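Appendix B, example 12.
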Amino acid sequence: MKKNKNTYRYIVVIISLLFILPTNTVAQYDLGFYSMRAVPQTNQLNPAFIPDYKFHFGLPTFSSTLTGFGTSGPHYNQMFMVTPGDSLGINNNGILDNIGSSNNINNKNINQWLYGGMKWNDFYFSISIGDVTDVNAQYSDKLVQLLLKGNSQFIGEKVSLNPIELKAIHYREYAMGVSWDLNSNLNIGIKAKALFGKAVINTEQMNFELLTTEDYYNLEVKSNFIVNTSIPEIVGDSATDWMDYTFSDANFGLGFDFGATYNIDDLWSVSASILDVGYIDFDRYQKTYTSNTEFTYKGIDAIPFIELNDDERETRINEIKDSLIDLFEVEESNQNFRVPLTAKMYLGADYNFNNKVTLGALVRLEFFKGIVRPSFTASYYRTLGENFSISASYTMINRSYLNFGLGLVANFEPFQFYIATDNIIGVVAPEMVKYANIHVGINFVFKNDIIRLPMINL
């Protein structure tokens, strides 16, 4: 087996940053957007939704852009504080007071390069091409306590640092969907997606146990982990060509979305969808790191550091880092591996107050490595004349209960512009919130077969 300490350091740094920086680590949220049925892209959240247009297409590269982050742990202002001298310091108490036994960090960015759809009899067909970057992590309070306060607090106690989970992935998605208007009450839909993985870091297995002995305070460590990666070279003579990275047909996978809507009567309707059921097989740039060992760490003798200059001290620190890596007896291999997608379920109910106003309720469940993450959204959607519609929403998510969203759709056929967020405060002050997102796009929509252009008199 081959070992590469620089690669280990790279992965460790990424994982560490994800655990301590909540603002940059989608799930596919878009919770208030679910009710904005005037926008064709709501079909992305439930493939049974049929837009009220004969055909439509998104402005290439500006069809749909979604970015969002969330954390159930502390937000930025709780993690950092201004210290004397106007420098930025870590707020240990702010962090420790705002974590639970299990905490998540997530970020998702979706850039839809192409999207279009059309109706034909009782069917609606759609196609899309987009890039998805999805980062999901789960960490325990014990891990944070160890990082901030050291192991002295756990003397004589065997401590498990689980859960420690990470999936950071970038992939290209080619999707084709069909919706079927079965009758006046029931619609069903399915979407099939060809996926091409670009890069990934995924913890297939992650178990760490620590014991600080009561006599000499030695640290007994037990590790058992499997980390799969596919990371192209970014810099240097062997760096991966950008075109090769973007359009490579390696790392192939499949995904499926399923959905249904049902009109109970003229006032009530319900809907359900399951998204991202699938996987990606990685067979390019693939590396797997495994460790299954136990060792005792006796600490570092600080006295020899006193007489060293800065360069010598840095050299000695690097030597200590290498020795610590060696203790974990990490083995590297190059076998192919499979990474499942992060599946989501949406369950919605709508009440048509009148022909202009719809009230909605939505439960969303996300399934990440055996952990279920729930959220709830209440929404208000209203049409304003022929050209505008607005939405307002309230969301409970990530142990956060002050998320108020807004949305706007402007329709001047064939031009459509839309923008939506689940937390308006997060758009203007992301450092103050645990959850924020924004979704914006431009479409061309046509309710009739014939495009009529205005006459110009010369």
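The chain has a mean pLDDT of 87. The CA atoms of residues 56 and 445 lie 4 Å apart.
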